[in-house]
């Protein structure tokens, strides 16, 4: 049965879709069968990323390992059980269609609180929460005393994850492995970077998540999206020699995939 990886954060611009595409493509390159869903029904950044990839492969005559993306089914109101939500039905049908035929299902959630996102979090075996390295993003996880910098308690997103954990426990499912990924880390050891890091470590012990470094701010990520490519595809597209920034970015991806500790996964790229 597929392991469900949910990438979620209620704040936009944290790198969710970039993280989704790189994780899903890395898994596909490692020989796994990977399904993909995008629950942001308006922006569809993850879906557009996969669509761009398919279009580029057709134009360039390439066959690159690619996650199998599917839109949510329309659903049939006539088939709703008593008390069942229509959005729940759509997501359940999409996951059930992939669950027995995929090794992993990667789900991208919108940068806002929606019913689909809430349900997806309760389905997550692994939850990845990318966040920009600032207290603006940290505020979704916890409230901080402005004078002392001490964590006062969980905030809205952390409370939603807690609810998802309770639902899984009630259903007898294994606990969520929650990982907070620090994206856009500055190259210099700035004071704010240290403060955010210390606050995350404090909060991680209190509410139960792991902290991993993610992707630094790099131009390459903006350049890859229109062609649907990832860092792992560059050599297949004629880039014989990677520059130092690209090599460093690949190492960041390798470290992230290793840090996820996914079962039956040996990172070999």
UniProtKB/TrEMBL annotation:
CDD domains: ParAB_family (cd02042). InterPro entries: DNA_Partitioning_ATPase, MipZ, P-loop_NTPase. This is ATPase. The lineage of its organism: Bacteria, Pseudomonadati, Pseudomonadota, Alphaproteobacteria, Rhodobacterales.
């Amino acid at each position: 049965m597929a392991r469900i990886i949910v990438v979620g954060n209620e704040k936009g611009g944290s790198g969710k879709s970039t993280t989704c595409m790189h994780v899903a493509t890395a898994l596909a390159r490692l020989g796994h069968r990977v399904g993909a869903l995008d629950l942001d029904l308006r922006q569809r950044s993850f879906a557009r990323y996969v669509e761009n990839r398919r279009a580029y492969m057709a134009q360039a005559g390439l066959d690159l390992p690619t996650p199998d993306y599917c839109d949510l089914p329309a659903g049939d109101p006539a088939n709703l059980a008593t008390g069942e939500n229509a959005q729940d039905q759509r997501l359940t049908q999409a996951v059930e269609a992939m669950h027995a035929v995929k090794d992993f299902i990667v789900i991208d959630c919108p940068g806002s609180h929606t019913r689909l996102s809430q349900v997806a979090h309760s389905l997550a075996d692994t939850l990845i929460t990318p966040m920009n390295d600032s207290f603006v993003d940290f505020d979704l996880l916890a409230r901080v005393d402005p004078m002392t910098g001490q964590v006062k308690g969980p905030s809205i997103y952390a409370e939603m994850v807690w609810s998802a954990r309770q639902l899984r426990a009630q259903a007898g499912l294994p606990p969520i492995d929650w990982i907070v990924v620090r994206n856009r880390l500055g190259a210099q050891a700035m004071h704010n970077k240290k403060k955010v890091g210390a606050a995350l470590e404090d909060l991680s012990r209190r509410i139960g998540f792991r902290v991993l470094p993610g992707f630094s701010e790099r131009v390459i990520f903006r350049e890859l999206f229109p062609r649907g490519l990832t860092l792992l595809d560059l050599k297949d597209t004629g880039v014989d020699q990677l520059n130092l920034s690209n090599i460093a970015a690949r190492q960041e991806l390798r470290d992230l995939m290793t840090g996820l500790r996914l079962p039956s996964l040996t990172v070999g790229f």
